[in-house]
Amino acid sequence: MLPVIRAEDLQAFYVLETLRGKKVVRAVNGVSLVIPENTVYGLAGESGCGKTTLLKVLLGNLEPPLRHFGGRVLYRVDGEYLDALALPEGKRQKLRWTYISYIPQGSMSVFNPVAKLRTTFMDFLESHVSGKMRQELLRHAEEHLERLGLSPRILEAYPHQLSGGMRQRVAIALATLLNPRIILADEPTTALDVVAQRAVLQLLSDIQRKLRNTIVLVTHDMGIHATVTTRMAIMYAGRIVEEGWTQDIFTAPLHPYTQYLIRSLPRIGDKRLRESAPGSPPSLAQLPPGCPFHPRCPLAFERCREEVPELEEVGEQKVACFLRRASHVVTS
Amino acid sequence: MSLLLEVQNLTKVFALGSIFSRLRLTAVDRVSFTIEEGEIFTLAGESGCGKTTTARMILGFEPPTGGTIRYRGKALEEFTDRKSWFREVQAVFQNPFETFNPLRKVESYFFETVSNFRLATQRGEAERLIEEKLQAVGLSLEEIGGKYPSEFSGGQLQRASIARALLTNPSLLVADEPVSMVDASLRMSIVNLFRKLCDAFAVSVLYITHDLATAYYVSDRIAVMFRGNIVEMGKVEEVLGNPRHPYTRLLLESIPEPDPAKRLEERIVFLEEREEYLRAGCKFAGRCPEAWELCGREAPQEVEVDGVLVRCHKWAK
């Protein structure tokens, strides 16, 4: 599988000037990733682990206080690698939505609340597609919605008239209007209940199958990763701690954190006690020395407190842990 | 076990549109259930099924259009002041960062509750009481002292909000989606906490969620709601282990299971909320794979099948 996007030792921090001096939030702290084409790639991690920031950097969207401190993001466009963070602004604007697009967390903020959805769709098309008539563009939008199994009638609705699940699906339709090669979806189902969530996942899978592109799906819900992603990475405190085929990660999670995430999931038909990982995630402004998970890890030893483990290959998986094996901190 | 909360034919009707509009939407339609002492009871369903409205009526935030809510045999209206009701019934909300004012220290909420309910007369006594409740959820006054909500993780703050709810020694906690905003790695610690409180202090919990996996894990009995009606109710092992109502089955099938061998294959139909609320007959008929002509015409009655209440024509025969 050819990569469609690569990150090499990426570092991006928020630099905040506070009354007590400068505060550096290490949100993306040395991330290397290879995301293959034609796949649904999962990125797991809980709130405040830096996954949204990583998406911003992958998108080339670095605005103060977020600053790029090192590493590269490479897009493979027509067989050539482009350094996304070094591209001139105009070129990057061109790639946005046609090559790489983004579905944000809250779909309500995507749309203008006082305009019909048609206006939003038309504004979007007019600013990205040149040399076409209004009627043609409108027809394109309608056809696209129909292809995704949504009624073109919704273009006549205002955002608040749709349910959360429907609005999220329309936001996805908007983000995929120009058939992008990469779609970054940031917690697209978090505010939704299980049934609406399923509708959104169904739509994302359909789009991936039709366009044969790459969807990077960010969510903290391991159940979603299991059901829709092919490969996945697990992020903790600004770093990737485990990466591999979803199937392998679920059968033999290597990192103690991944083991907690998977083994603590409740399952219907099983009432045995499930334990959460002890403690809570560290603040990205005050990372512990050594492995960032060591204060919560029951298997931590001397080296973990002093040295940061690198992401290294173990068979087909990669893990950033000195133990490098399935150690089963939690019994299931 | 004795009866703690009894909800009978609870109904809430909202009028839609302007004051002249005749469109009336029954958000909660003659809902009846009971909660025993020391029991965790789950109210499950998708958004817009009426579960939060039911909780709001039990908490007295919303006057019911009809029906009764009784606590140990005494009706909600007979509690002359809200305080005596809240002494017994306390709430835990979805987002702990919205529960607490970001500009106020978390500890101040504890002292406020103590003085509101006159739980202690001296500061030392108040501190002892607060410490006891914080210990029960795995925190301490030292840990939360002097801190603002932003200095906590979601899991810690949710624990703190549970500890605050416990101050009055309530017999019932109404928890509306208490874990959906909590970090994945800490979620089970909150769910386990409900179990522990229930076992150690005999606190009953009304657990409101759309997450059937945690509902199965933690609760004793469950009621599945759909568009204002309870469609299935019984022991959680029975209802979720052997679902009888087609809607319960749909909910179960929608859960993304943590097993990569089970991919999303089957397709389901989706309809908008309002459309379903206003339909005649069974509200689920539009999406039900087993619906027949009667379902679109007549609302099904509740029937008991092997100790489980089911509201479906298929089982009424």
TrEMBL record, chain A:
<keyword id="KW-0547">Nucleotide-binding</keyword>
<dbReference type="InterPro" id="IPR003593">
    <property type="entry name" value="AAA+_ATPase"/>
</dbReference>
<dbReference type="InterPro" id="IPR013563">
    <property type="entry name" value="Oligopep_ABC_C"/>
</dbReference>
<dbReference type="GO" id="GO:0016887">
    <property type="term" value="F:ATP hydrolysis activity"/>
</dbReference>
<dbReference type="Pfam" id="PF00005">
    <property type="entry name" value="ABC_tran"/>
</dbReference>
<dbReference type="InterPro" id="IPR017871">
    <property type="entry name" value="ABC_transporter-like_CS"/>
</dbReference>
<dbReference type="InterPro" id="IPR003439">
    <property type="entry name" value="ABC_transporter-like_ATP-bd"/>
</dbReference>
<keyword id="KW-0067">ATP-binding</keyword>
<dbReference type="Pfam" id="PF08352">
    <property type="entry name" value="oligo_HPY"/>
</dbReference>
<dbReference type="GO" id="GO:0015833">
    <property type="term" value="P:peptide transport"/>
</dbReference>
<keyword id="KW-0813">Transport</keyword>
<feature type="domain" description="ABC transporter">
    <location>
        <begin position="5"/>
        <end position="262"/>
    </location>
</feature>
<protein>
    <submittedName>
        <fullName>ABC transporter ATP-binding protein</fullName>
    </submittedName>
</protein>
<dbReference type="GO" id="GO:0005524">
    <property type="term" value="F:ATP binding"/>
</dbReference>
<dbReference type="InterPro" id="IPR027417">
    <property type="entry name" value="P-loop_NTPase"/>
</dbReference>
UniProtKB/TrEMBL annotation, chain B:
<keyword id="KW-0547">Nucleotide-binding</keyword>
<protein>
    <submittedName>
        <fullName>ABC transporter ATP-binding protein</fullName>
    </submittedName>
</protein>
<dbReference type="InterPro" id="IPR003439">
    <property type="entry name" value="ABC_transporter-like_ATP-bd"/>
</dbReference>
<keyword id="KW-0813">Transport</keyword>
<dbReference type="Pfam" id="PF08352">
    <property type="entry name" value="oligo_HPY"/>
</dbReference>
<keyword id="KW-0067">ATP-binding</keyword>
<dbReference type="InterPro" id="IPR003593">
    <property type="entry name" value="AAA+_ATPase"/>
</dbReference>
<dbReference type="InterPro" id="IPR027417">
    <property type="entry name" value="P-loop_NTPase"/>
</dbReference>
<dbReference type="InterPro" id="IPR017871">
    <property type="entry name" value="ABC_transporter-like_CS"/>
</dbReference>
<dbReference type="GO" id="GO:0005524">
    <property type="term" value="F:ATP binding"/>
</dbReference>
<feature type="domain" description="ABC transporter">
    <location>
        <begin position="5"/>
        <end position="252"/>
    </location>
</feature>
<dbReference type="InterPro" id="IPR013563">
    <property type="entry name" value="Oligopep_ABC_C"/>
</dbReference>
<dbReference type="GO" id="GO:0015833">
    <property type="term" value="P:peptide transport"/>
</dbReference>
<dbReference type="Pfam" id="PF00005">
    <property type="entry name" value="ABC_tran"/>
</dbReference>
<dbReference type="GO" id="GO:0016887">
    <property type="term" value="F:ATP hydrolysis activity"/>
</dbReference>
